[in-house]
Amino acid sequence: MSTLLTALATAGPLAAGWSVHTVWLRRSLRSARRDPLTGLRTRDGFTRRANVLLKDPRAVVVLADVDHFKQINDTHGHAAGDALLKATADRLAHYVGRTGVTGRLGGDEFAAVVIDPHGTIGDLLAVLHGVLARPADGMDPAVRTTVSLGWVGAADHPGDDLSGLLRRADEAMYAAKQARAGVRRAGLGRLLATLSGRRAGRRGAALAGPRDAA
After folding, report:
1. Which of 33, 56, 62, 113, CA to CA, is 20 to 30 A from 155?
2. Is the pTM of this model over 0.90?
3. Beta bridge partners of 41
4. Which of 35, 108, 116, 170 is catalytic?
């Protein structure tokens, strides 16, 4: 009996220590999947959730890119640029809500997957474009810009995975940026010429051309 009690007494601290370690690992994993500036999911976390949502044929993939972001940084400083990114991320996350997913892919580029049950995503994104152009609360009104949006419905291209749909949304977003159109839907035809998943006109693309300052 004394041997059993001794074993239990020894195992207790070990079990408690392992429990604390497990909690720490879970928190670390969650932190690794969150962008430290915006609080949005990083590419890995976004991809995991997006792939689940894309099982629904009503899913829509949206790509958002802040216009003239380099000019904001150069003119107003990186702190202002960071604040603008945070405000953009907060507004995107509010629009998407808990039923969708939003992520920061890097720099001033964001992505989202939402479910469009009523076929009104085009109208909703037009409204969102206006919201994203508003000055951020508490910031100098001069620190403002627009955000170009490109989107594609998963049902339009049932053979595409998340990567393919993001490329199509990326093409549409870039076309919207070039035309200063605000929002554009990806066409139902083939993708524009790309290399390694980079849109034509973006750095690293096969047919790279001049691009407006992001």
Report:
1. 33
2. no
3. 34, 103
4. 108
